[in-house]
Specification:
Length: about 200
């Protein structure tokens, strides 16, 4: 009788533990998806997508107060093209105006400067026009995210001069939402929760 009672008790405890683990998994996934929403709010913001463009090599000034009707694509002025090189080597190099130097970027309408060579991200890292799920899958693919693991994305956010400028572009420019610490916290929650993407089973 004791053996039977012990087995029943053990089974109940095992079921309770399994249920608790499943509940934690569900909560972790929910937190990770909420964190992804915060991440997506940044990577889908015009401050980011205006440079994360596709094969056209045309940087944009869309959605940042440079004029144009709502929903109309506003192309970077001066007929700038980044071309296949992504630095404008075939036409006019980005560095012609965007000098590589640390700067507070406090002069309105002046070309922004950062302590890195100004350029567009590789075509593989294009986010413009993509859905939340598409960008999520892209960020999990080292061939399309700059060769980072999900865990390494946080370090990239903390060390990239481009990312830092996106959150603090200066001269009254519209910044990406949030901050670097908030982005890193969201990435950490997303990773711990299993890096789910919207629509995953």
């Amino acid at each position: 009788m004791r053996t039977l009672r012990g087995a029943i008790t053990g089974g109940i405890i095992a079921l309770a533990c399994a249920g608790s683990a499943r509940a934690q998994d569900v909560q972790g996934r929910a937190a990770a998806l909420a964190a992804w929403d915060d991440i997506h709010a940044v990577v889908s913001h015009p401050r980011c997508t205006n440079c994360h463009v596709g094969p056209s090599g045309l940087p944009l000034w869309e959605g940042l107060g440079y004029g144009g009707a709502l929903g109309k694509e506003v192309v970077h002025g001066m007929n700038v093209r980044a071309d296949d090189s992504r630095i404008g080597a075939e036409s006019m190099p980005c560095r012609t105006c965007h000098i590589s130097a640390a700067s507070a970027n406090s002069v309105p309408h002046a070309p922004p400067k950062i302590a890195d060579a100004w350029r567009l991200p590789p075509i593989e890292m294009a986010w413009k026009g993509k859905t939340s799920a598409e960008i999520c899958v892209q960020l999990l693919d080292p061939d399309r995210n700059g060769a980072f693991t999900p865990e390494e994305l946080s370090d990239h956010v903390g060390t990239s001069a481009f990312v830092a400028w996106g959150f603090d572009p200066g001269a009254g420019r519209v910044a990406a939402p949030g901050s670097i610490p908030e982005m890193q916290e969201a990435l950490a929650i997303w990773v711990v929760g299993g890096t789910p993407c919207v629509g995953d089973p």
